[in-house]
Amino acid sequence: MDTQYTQQDQSRLFILSCIALTVTAMTFAIRAGILGDLGTQYGLSGTELGLISSMAFLGFPIATMVGGILYNMFGPRMLLWIAFIGHAVGLILTIYSSGFWGLIISTFLIGFANGMVEAACNPLIAETHENNKTTMLNKFHVWFPGGIVIGALVSTGMTELSYGWELQIAVMLIPTAIYGYMLLKSNFPKLNPLIMSSSENIKNLFSPLYIFLVVCMTLTATTELATGQWINEILAASGAHPMLTLALVTGIMAVGRYFAGPIVHSLNPVGVLVASAVLSTLGLYLMSQLQGTPVYFAAVVFALGVTYFWPTMLGCVGEYTPKTGAIGMSLIGGAGMFAVSIWTPIIGRWMDEAKAQALTQNLSENEMALASGQAVLSSLLVLPAILIVAFAALYFYLHKRGQNHTAVSEAG
Question: Where does the record place the Major facilitator superfamily (MFS) profile domain (predicted)?
């Protein structure tokens, strides 16, 4: 560590990282809240909206893969500057876009910036808090669901006050400017070299267990994040407020992740994944069947299911495939986001097909929206249902190998 690097510098960098992650999360929530407005203003179909939304999930894994190399070459400061520029330019381009292609480009830039935040901050926090990595990384990752709550409430409030989607996007420039200013004033430490070589990490990426975890990560990430992107459209006619439902789900996730340490230490990680898959499947099923106030109960069940998906998957990589190192951690997160980029337009197509099917039944506009939304949710619950079988199989496989012990999750 740099001898001039102080405790105050450490605290400042942690706060900077949390603000940057908050911006990342707000882009998810506010984009989910304005999808309908974008479709109306530019005459976009559900498939086109899905393609636009998918750019954020495509930019993320590309940034993660590039960022792992850049981190070792130039350090976290450079990555955070790239993230700041991507956020600022992407948000401004979104406001001034004139249609489909402008939104495609700007959303990709925002997604790339989001990936750079993760690529820079995860290893930075781990290295600057060597004695309590798990606690601080979990506290850092609270600000993903926490930022989604903030974004959902901002979007809801501004919509109720009849502010347009452009102003909702512009709000995110404020925290972006704050972390950019802090970046100018921050002192970064000299970081220790990686314990394991990149060549050793890469060689171990091809282990069957790691590949299995990557495949599962594509389904857990899609269950958690793709549903969040479409919740406004899906729940529009259910009788529950879509953005408040999103805030409820992510609020539960934030609290759950804040107290994740004792839970992860006391429970078997694969057992947690099995329970998460069961609750996620049940939650989606209930949301596809219920209307009105009971939808909030369904949302709570779903939230309890997806809360520990992301951190426990990363914990399993660290526990059961440790030789994949930091590259393994980065790539599995990137794989999850990449999968969401593929699934989001597919879900959009499902929405278009469900609406077309509802039109043939002579339903009212509200009934048609409800029927199509519930049909999409019914299709989505197949993903966590597959995970129940996959994680149960993993549990018995690891038990047979004598590896079913508690893992420590290093992320949230």
Answer: 13-402
Q: Considering Cα of 317, then 320, then 325, then 328, what sign does the dihedral take?
A: negative
Question: In this structure, are residues 406 and 264 in contact, taking their beta carbons and an 8 Å threshold?
Answer: yes
Please report the DSSP string for 226-281 in residue order.
Answer: IHHHHHHHHTTTSSS-HHHHHHHHHHHHHHHHHTHHHHHHHS-HHHHHHHHHHHHH
Q: Quick one: how far is CA 153 from the chain centroid?
A: 18
Give the tens place of pLDDT for each residue, 339-379: 988 888 888 888 788 878 877 887 777 777 777 778 888 88
Of 64, 406, 399, 390, the C-alpha closest to 216 is 390
Mean pLDDT across the chain: 83
What are the angstrom distances between the C-alpha of 15 and each of 28, 250, 406? 20, 20, 30
Residue 372, number of CB atoms within 10 A of its CB: 26
- Using CA atoms, how far residue 358 sits from 28, 73, 353, in Å, is 29, 54, 9
